[in-house]
Amino acid sequence: MSGAILVVDDEAASREGLAGLLSAYGFNVQSAPDGHSALELLPHFQPDLVLLDVVMPELNGFEVCRQLKNNPDTRLTPVVLITALSETQDRVRGLEAGADDFLSKPIDLSELLARVRSLLSLKVFTDELERAESVLFALACSIEAKDPYTEGHCRRLSDYSAELGERIGLPEHQVVALRRAGIVHDIGKVAVPDNLLLKRGSLTREEWKVMREHPVVGERICAPLKSFRLVLPIIRHHHERADGSGYPDGLKGEQIPVMARVLQIVDVYDALTTQRPYKRAFSASEALETMANEVSKGWWDPHIFAEFQQMRLRRAGPVALRQPTPIVEYSMNFGL
Predict the structure, then answer these.
(1) Which whole-number Å values give the CA distances from 143 to 138, 213, 246, 258, 274, in the listed order?
(2) What is the CATH T-level fold of the domain 149-333, as seen in this structure?
(3) pLDDT tens digits, residue range 13-60?
(4) Strands 4-8 and 79-83: what pairing?
(5) Considering the domain 4-126 in this protein, what is its CATH number?
(6) Tens digits of per-residue pLDDT, 279-322?
(7) DSSP per residue, 23-50
(8) What does the alpha-carbon distance between residue 238 and residue 263 come to, in Å, rounded to a whole number?
(9) Strands 101-104 and 49-53
(10) Distance CA 113, CA 185 (A)
(11) Which residues make Cβ contacts (< 8 Å) with residue 161, sequence separation at least 6?
């Protein structure tokens, strides 16, 4: 098995010895003498695995590992921490930084090769997963690109929903699912004819039947990806309403997954505040007023809406809201 490996160690003898050994077994190896050099080299070398000494001056291995795992471009790159430290607290510290494995000094050759080969095999699978996700994201963006009025909609939903999820205290893995769902929530519209997607007037009853299938189709498209397990309920249920009048399953209240309730709030807001062929773009205050009116009708989760309202007002500054009045029930017409 071949693979690109970055060896990071401030001790020249250890660094060169490890690099030479791995090169002899057919691996493509580069090395760095410290944490700063390693971080500078990463974008150019793009290793499949990083072997990282823990004890280094200035930027130690824990901190380098943490930066790698916090960077979207390198978060899936396996990191092995090499250390002479044997205390449990040091292992815990490494795990908290995101380390995938550990090697103790002095390094045993057979153990080194076994761990390297195992993690490189895992990297192959994660690369395939990333490619599959990239295809879905590209498909979702191509659907959005058909309509100039929805430009940037998916990216905004991804950002808004993740921010709102964090605000209401959702755990990190659910926030990640919301960020993904923001991009692919409408991917099922690939099965909706363009003449319906781009229609300027109201949809007929038969056309609505076709449009309302897109959450089910989207769920089916994304179902093969196990990494999208938490994303699927968001795709399927982001058009449900708390009073049971939504689709495709007519779920009510708490039956609607909380992440879907988050996404539907930001989806409605973004649709209201962007121009469409059948409406002008609402101001933030108009959109929030309209949504407050819809909350009073039992459409959206009042707690999540209140948190979103505070989130938007904090960003936009004080906005005077009148008592909710029915401006126009545009939410019926968005494909929402």
Answers:
(1) 9, 16, 23, 26, 17
(2) Hypothetical protein af1432 (1.10.3210)
(3) 888 888 998 999 899 999 999 999 999 998 889 898 999 998 888 889
(4) unpaired
(5) 3.40.50.2300
(6) 788 999 999 999 999 999 999 999 999 999 999 887 765 444 44
(7) HHTT-EEEEESSHHHHHHHHHHH--SEE
(8) 6
(9) unpaired
(10) 42
(11) 178, 179, 181, 182, 262, 263, 266
CA-CA distance, 283 to 273, in Å (whole number)?
6
Return the C-alpha torsion angle 233, 144, 207, 188, nearest 10: -30
Which two tokens mark 136? 């879905």
CA 304, 305, 309: angle at the middle one, nearest 5?
120
Which amino acid is residue 300, in one-letter code? W
**Residue 158 to residue 16: CA distance in whole angstroms:** 44
DSSP code of 283?
A: P
Beta sheet of 28-32, edge-to-edge order: 28-32, 4-8, 49-53, 79-83, 101-104
How far apart, in Å, are the Cα atoms of 207 and each of 35, 46, 73, 196? 58, 48, 42, 7
Contact 82, 111 (CB under 8 A): no
pLDDT of residue 248: 95
Sign of torsion over alpha carbons 135, 140, 146, 152: negative
> Distance between CA atoms of 246 and 25, rounded to whole angstroms?
60
- Give the Cα separation of 27 and 41 in Å (integer): 17
The torsion defined by the Cα of 92, 57, 112 and 129, in degrees rounded to 10, comes to 70
Quick: pLDDT tens for 109-130. Answer: 888 888 888 888 877 766 666 6
- Is the CB of residue 332 less than 8 Å from the CB of residue 299? no
What token pair was written down for 12? 């020249």
What's the rounded Cα separation, in Å, for the pair 91 and 99? 9
Q: Are 290 and 330 in contact (CB under 8 A)?
A: yes
Confidence of residue 196 (pLDDT cuts 50, 70, 90): confident
